[in-house]
Amino acid sequence: MTARIHPLLGAFAILVFLFLLAPLVIIVGASLSDTTYLTFPPQGLTLRWFANIFEISAFRNTAITSFQVAILGTGLSLLIGIPAAYALNRYRVGLPKWLGTLFILPILVPEIVFGFSLLKTITIGLGLPVYPSLIIGHALLVLPYSVRVVGASLASFDFSVEEAAISLGCPPLKTFFTVVLPNIRAGVIAAFILAFITSINDVSISVFLTGPGISTLPIQILAHMEQFFDPTIASVSVLLMLVTVGVMAIVEMTLGLTFLTK
Amino acid sequence: MNKFAKWGLTLPATIAVTLLLVVPVLITIATTFGEPKGVFSTYTAFFNSGFRTNILYRTLRIALITTAISLVIGFLTAYVIAQMPGRLKSIAIIAAVFPLLTGVVVRSFAWLIILGKNGILNSSLLSLGIISEPLSMLYTEGSVIVAMVYLFVPLMILTLTGVLEGIPRDVVEASASLGARPIATFFQVILPLAVPGLIVGAVLVFTGSFTSYATPQLLGGEQMMMMGTLLYQRAMVTFDWVGASTIAAIMVVITIAVVSIMSRIARRLNPMAV
User: What pLDDT digit, counting tens, does each position of A44-96 carry?
Assistant: First the structure.
């Protein structure tokens, strides 16, 4: 669709983008301020708050945990999600409809309810340690991305190519890895990225699944904020924004960012 | 073989979701009916407590207001983005995606710096002489709503940009060539075609804000608790697990009701699906 834009509407859109980006600019400014409290515009410039992050071992440890949990959780979700997405698209007839709904339940059920229920039944009820519970929680949280995003790219895959390979004598598993997988590469990468970023930013599930010595970075940031209100938090936030920039660069290089509006 | 593959491939994910999500959530809900005082006693206790029902109504109110504001801002902005030429459009999309991919803690924290007692807004209003004493803007419904709108507008913009770009150009041109003024085209052609997308966006924002935890925790505090923060407080601070499970059950019922009713309405209102 194409139509002309009223200047007032254009001005409104510019204000919206200012509203979206100004708070992030303020965080960057506050992280550079040479004061012991958070302020903007920064008074004096220093990088000592960034150095301070590395002095606090809790930030380092939780960052490592967050990263591990995101990689393992996303990996697990792809491991069970890709076969499910494949079956849903390959054998569209014959599989019950509720199966598709089942796999998106993790986004339908409120995250905070899911986190609490996991703690109650798996961690405390069955006595599973916190760390594997955390990975399970994150793997399920991101499963819908694995099934739906990979599924979207399987939907446009021509399965007759696969049948041709098989009828020419290629074993099914080898066909999957050499014919199907390369064709849905973009979907797998997209699912991985969306899942990873969702996991690394998660609060509502992780907040229940932390224990002695195990916590994730967002939970540690919340805890730190309750005691200190210094620019350290702003500098941690800037580092997290740099992770976002990195992720966006990967998306742009592999799929193009317009992918995200589809 | 086919039959085996068909079920076998979906089996791991089916088992995982069933055993690790459906069963735990159902157990949580089931425990609320096992009280010695009666099957529904925890629910009557919840709805008889002014404190707790206030939190439920506040959560619904905040979620509704956030949804309404995000819809208007998101739709108008997406409309502008959809008309932009290619290069500008990519920049606009990057500007919307970036906050979306930045964590909820970071984005809520930004509003803590802006709205705090010694925050940016107070200090600029003071130095401009508009106010003589700093206002307390944090820990109000307003601060939670501002931060939530900030959280969800990018999601709305991206959802609706996709929807608006999907509207065939011919339809808009046909309307114009038949003499409709731009404003009439907007209200009589574009808006009705966008309704299903608007509903999808509204459901995403409503459920997201209704069940949020981090934002009310940071910007609402104890004074402006919402269902998510109340659940956490009951479970992890006062260890009232039945109370927490009751809150969880109420949240699940409301969320699923909203999603299923709205998606049914969306399907019925879709003018292209005739």
Answer: 888 888 988 888 888 999 999 999 999 999 999 999 999 999 999 888 777 78
Examine the domain organization and report whether A197 and A234 are in the same domain: no
A131 and A167 in a common domain? yes
Task: Quick: pLDDT tens for B250-272.
Answer: 999 999 999 999 988 888 877 66
Q: Residue B182 sits in which domain range? A: 49-84+139-273
ipTM of the complex: 0.92
Q: Would you give the DSSP letter of residue A183?
A: H
Q: Are A161 and A179 in contact (CB under 8 A)?
A: yes
Q: Across the interface, do A105 and B101 touch by the CB < 8 Å criterion?
A: no
Domain containing A255 equals 22-55+228-262
Considering CB atoms only, which of B110, B231, B241 is closest to A27? B110
Chain A nearest C-alpha distance from B50 (Å): 23
A to B CB pairs, distance under 8 Å: 270
A163 and A246 both lie in a single domain = no
Please provide the DSSP assignment of chain B as one string.
-HHHHHHHHHHHHHHHHIIIIIHHHHHHHHHTT--TT-TTHHHHHHHH-HHHHHHHHHHHHHHHHHHHHHHHHHHHHHHHHHHS-HHHHHHHHHHHHHHHHS-HHHHHHHHHHHHSTTSHHHHHHHHTTS-SS----TTSHHHHHHHHHHHHHHHHHHHHHHHHHHS-HHHHHHHHHTT--HHHHIIIIIHHHHHHHHHHHHHHHHHHHHT--HHHHHHTTTTT--HHHHHHIIIIIS--HHHHHHHHHHHHHHHHHHHHHHHHHHHHH-GGG-
pLDDT value at residue A257: 65
Chain A CB contacts of B160 below 8 Å: none
